Design the sequence.
């Protein structure tokens, strides 16, 4: 138990429940939900495991000190008192990232600068040489979080945001974030037991995340590097053992994952990304206009998609476009659960179907809704009669 420590997984608004469930299933202890974060307890091996295997986390932080701050000097003194030599060589490099909600500390960049100064001054006073600042590839990435009068200093175990899985080399305008895509699929309840479709697949992110969920493939296997790989206590043998144990838990998938897009360039990009992710055996991408298609076969279909919006909607009539979504689903896709996300809340009125669920989420900083439309084999009334 002595080797266990507290960690905090940061996530998107509304994903706290899914993230807590993911962490619990992976074996985390003392899981507690916060706002846009979930705290938990584990050891070094679990830290590696969480970074490799969690789909809905943006970062995994390791808090090392928490203290009260009322003025600038409190930050400087407390940071300087941390034994940074335990985490970083004087010849190494560092980067500091800060988020602040405080009357004195109002600028995150200034807070990061004061933190850096305190660390550097400690090294300088102890031995004369000091670490460099490297914002791109630091040996140690430090996170400062000040909320009212409480400051928490953490080590960033992940480095670059965990949504950067490593498989996407080609993107379209306004691509969906990988963490958001995975979370939406998980929120929709899809478990890989039916066919899956993204009828407006763009660069293929939703398709790739769906395939990894269906096969239980760890989402971050393809990342070039995690921040902890530059730490003094980096254990490559332990990391490889954890990686192997996760890979042993992959499962077979016996259904289809289908992607459509009417843009030839989007289709090319999606195919390239899916190939990069080594998921092309599970995913079929076609150049199709969704509004001119019909569902193949009678089996249950699960659909998750991100219709164009904002800059992608420049030449589109919103009322007509969303009306076509409703018409296509109603007439061409019986026995389908269709989920879509949109930040254009007005546009949902034009779909012409009543959603059975509406969930508030954020796409970047845009407040959005994830909505569910249930398409039955016949009418809803007929369906109820069949069940009675």
Sequence:
């Amino acid at each position: 138990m002595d080797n266990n420590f507290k960690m905090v997984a940061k996530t998107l608004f509304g994903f706290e429940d899914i993230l807590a469930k993911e962490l619990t299933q992976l074996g985390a202890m003392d899981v507690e939900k916060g706002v846009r974060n979930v705290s938990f307890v584990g050891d070094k091996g679990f830290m590696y495991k969480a970074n490799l295997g969690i789909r809905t986390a943006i970062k995994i932080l390791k808090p090392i000190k928490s203290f009260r701050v009322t003025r600038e000097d409190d930050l400087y003194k407390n940071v300087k008192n941390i034994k940074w030599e335990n985490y970083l060589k004087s010849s190494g490099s560092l980067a500091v990232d800060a988020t602040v909600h405080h009357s004195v500390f109002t600028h995150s960049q200034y807070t990061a600068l004061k933190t850096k100064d305190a660390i550097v001054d400690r090294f300088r006073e102890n031995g004369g040489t000091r670490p460099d600042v490297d914002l791109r590839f630091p040996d140690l990435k430090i996170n400062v979080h000040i909320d009212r009068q409480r400051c928490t200093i953490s080590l960033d175990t992940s480095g670059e945001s965990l949504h950067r899985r490593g498989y996407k080399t080609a993107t379209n305008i306004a691509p969906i974030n990988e963490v958001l895509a995975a979370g939406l699929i998980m929120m929709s309840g899809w478990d890989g037991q039916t066919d899956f479709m993204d009828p407006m697949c763009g660069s293929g992110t939703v398709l790739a995340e769906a395939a990894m969920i269906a096969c239980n493939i760890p989402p971050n296997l393809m990342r070039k590097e995690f921040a902890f790989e530059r730490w003094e206590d980096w254990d490559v043998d332990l990391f490889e053992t954890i990686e192997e144990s996760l890979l042993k838990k992959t499962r077979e998938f016996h259904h289809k994952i289908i992607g459509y897009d009417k843009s030839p360039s989007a289709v090319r990009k999606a195919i390239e990304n899916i190939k990069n992710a080594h998921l092309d055996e599970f995913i079929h991408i076609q150049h199709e206009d969704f509004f001119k298609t019909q569902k193949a076969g009678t089996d249950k279909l699960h659909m998750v998609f991100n219709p164009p919006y904002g800059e992608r909607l420049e030449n589109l009539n919103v009322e007509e476009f969303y009306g076509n979504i409703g018409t296509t689903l109603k007439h061409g896709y019986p026995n389908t659960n269709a989920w879509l996300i949109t930040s254009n809340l007005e546009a949902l009125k034009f779909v012409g179907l009543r959603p059975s669920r509406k969930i508030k989420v954020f796409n970047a900083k845009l407040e959005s809704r994830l909505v569910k439309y249930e398409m039955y084999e016949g009418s809803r009334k007929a369906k109820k009669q069949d069940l009675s």
About this structure: The longest helix spans residues 108-127. The chain has ten helices and 15 strands. The radius of gyration is 24 Å. The CA atoms of residues 91 and 207 lie 44 Å apart.
